[in-house]
Specification:
CATH class: Alpha Beta
Strand content: 15-25%
Distance between the termini: 44 Å
Shape: globular
Number of helices: 11
Helix content: 25-40%
Bound molecules: aspartic acid
Radius of gyration: 19 Å
CATH architecture: 4-Layer Sandwich
Order of helices and strands: HEHHEEHEHHHHEEEEHHHEEEEE
Largest sheet: 8 strands, mixed
Structural class: alpha+beta
Number of domains: 1
CATH superfamily: (Glycosyl)asparaginase
CATH topology: Glutamine Phosphoribosylpyrophosphate, subunit 1, domain 1
Number of strands: 13
């Protein structure tokens, strides 16, 4: 019996329908909203695929990775895997991490080029080595050596087209200074968002997916192409254990999408799991992380006119009992999370620290 179970809290809102086990766990898969959107031409979304495997007795890590593979491979999601929006040089650089609660194993890959499914490379690192992180050319060499095909270019026609448009607009900006160019790059990207050329969920976008099976075993994965048109080599929170993903096999899992830099500072996923260890419901644990991010955001360049964070960040959270939540700094109709239980898949609104929608004006 874990400390968390011993708290004896009632099944709260967001709980999934029960298959009662020795540990009182309810099988559930929780993901970012794109986990119940993209199918890559197949019949199932990420959360449906993961839940089907979970219900069939698969290892929860195998289940969630099979789920996110659908989104990594679907060119329709330009925030993940193949067809992800590239860096400033037009190169798709991918980050991913995964954690296996019962086995206490974890791994991440960083700035990996040429492999459509970085989550599978992270899992191979987790399974086959005692290393926790591989980066860049080393990660690619590892992937090649264990049999992953390496492709020259992971752009889809759409991701390349959007990058060419961004480059065209950047050509008018006359500065060689890398900081000034980075700031101008953000402004140009924001303008493309405001014009509707890119969906906000794809400029900042990622997929996180976690699962709890009937034995209460918990695993999670996060995979992304990172921030659109980032400085080559920029790494966000997704592959960093504790930032974009954290799983404790006795307590629960948390993962994130959105402004990665704030999660790197706050180690938000770790913070959320530790809040749950102290007895917090997933929703309250997530809101606490949002308050921490808000308190840490003091740079004027990252604040809106009311002094609030000028970015969104979202957390997807599940505890060992199968209770779950999606929370976000800002709300609105597009700010959702995905869940799948024995009753099927659903897209639900995230609980927001600020109910209104994020206003796209500043340049994080
Ligand atoms: N968190 C990811 C990153 O910072 C991007 C995102 O989810 O928007 O790389």
């Amino acid at each position: 019996m874990t400390a968390h179970d011993a708290a004896g809290r009632r099944p709260a809102e967001g709980g999934s329908p029960g298959i009662v086990t020795g540990r009182q766990a309810r099988p559930v898969v929780v993901a970012s909203a794109n986990g119940n959107q993209f199918r890559n031409g197949g019949p199932l979304t990420c959360v449906e695929q993961a839940f089907a495997l979970l219900a069939g007795g698969a290892d929860p890590l195998d289940a969630v990775i099979a789920g996110v593979n659908i989104v990594e491979l679907d060119p329709g999601d330009s925030s993940v895997g193949y067809g992800g929006l590239p860096n400033a040089d037009g190169v798709v650089q991918l980050d991913a991490s995964c954690m296996h609660g019962p086995r206490r194993r974890a791994a991440g890959v960083v700035a990996l080029e040429g492999v459509r499914t970085p989550s599978l490379v992270a899992r191979a690192l987790l399974e086959r080595t005692n290393h926790r992180m591989l980066a860049g050319a080393g990660a690619q060499a590892f992937a090649r050596a264990i049999g992953f095909p390496i492709e020259d270019d992971l752009n889809s026609p759409r991701s390349r087209g959007l990058w060419l448009e961004w480059k065209r607009r950047m050509a008018a900006i006359e500065t060689a200074d890398p900081i000034a160019r980075m700031e101008a790059g953000y402004r140009v990207g924001q303008q493309m968002l405001v014009e509707g050329l890119i969906d906000v969920n794809h400029y900042y976008g990622t997929i996180n997916c976690s699962a709890v099976n009937a034995r209460g075993e918990i695993c999670g994965v996060t995979t992304t192409s990172g921030l659109a048109w980032k400085i080559p080599g920029r790494v966000g929170d997704s592959p960093v254990l504790g930032a974009g993903l954290y799983v404790d096999g006795e307590v629960g899992a948390a993962g994130s999408t959105g402004h990665g830099e704030s999660n790197l500072y706050a180690l938000s996923s770790f913070l959320i799991v530790e809040e749950m260890r102290r007895g917090a419901h997933p929703k309250d644990a997530g809101l606490e992380a949002l308050r921490r991010v808000r308190a840490n955001t003091v740079d004027p360049a990252l604040l809106d006119a009311q002094g609030r964070p000028a970015f969104n960040v979202k957390y997807y959270i599940v505890n060992a009992r199968g209770e779950h939540a999606g929370v976000a700094m800002y709300g609105g109709p597009q700010v959702n999370y995905a869940v799948c239980t024995g009753h099927g898949a659903e897209t639900r609104p995230c609980e927001a620290l600020f109910d209104e929608e994020l206003t796209l004006t500043a340049a994080p």
